[in-house]
Write a structure and sequence with these properties.
145 residues; alpha+beta; Nuclear Transport Factor 2, Chain: A; 4-stranded antiparallel β-sheet; 4 strands; disordered N terminus; NTF2-like_dom_sf; UPF0225 protein KDL01_11830; YchJ-like_M; YchJ-like
Length: 145
């Protein structure tokens, strides 16, 4: 979900700060942020499944939490420097399916659609099937398949 940004967006991104936490979780679970992705972002809990990690990473994109995205990205595929495009507003997440990724698995996939808008433009959709693995007992994002 990290997308290339224009030079102007990169400049604006440097000045951008992380968004204030919302009441409702951006991952579209229907739960409060403080009871859903908030504890994961704050380091008070670990994702119990690949889907939970994917949802928390979507929320991190929506809130601009680059630190969490970097911490939950496998070191072999993580970019050296991650910049989020401040023009992008993530608006909705749909989980389409999962394979593996449970408490007794070491890998899993999550297919999803992430809805977003750039600078108030029309809604766009990014579809991805993401691969996750356990690293040191914790789920991490590996790559898009």
């Amino acid at each position: 979900m990290a997308r290339r940004s224009t030079p102007a967006a990169k400049s604006a991104n440097k000045a951008a700060t992380r968004s204030a936490p919302p009441v409702e979780c951006p991952c579209c679970s229907g739960r409060a942020y403080a009871a859903c992705c908030g504890p994961l972002h704050e380091g008070h809990a670990q994702a119990a499944s690949a889907e939970t990690l994917m949802r928390s990473r979507y929320s991190a994109f929506a809130l601009g939490d680059v630190g969490y995205l970097e911490r939950t990205w496998h070191p072999s595929t993580r970019p050296r420097h991650l910049e989020l495009d401040p023009a992008t507003r993530w608006t909705r997440l749909e989980v389409l399916g999962t394979t593996g990724g449970g408490p007794f698995h070491t890998e899993g996939t999550v297919e999803f659609r992430a809805h977003y808008r750039d600078w108030g433009g029309p809604e766009q959709i990014m579809r991805e099937n993401s691969e996750f693995v356990r690293e040191g007992g914790a789920w991490v994002y590996l790559s898009a398949l």
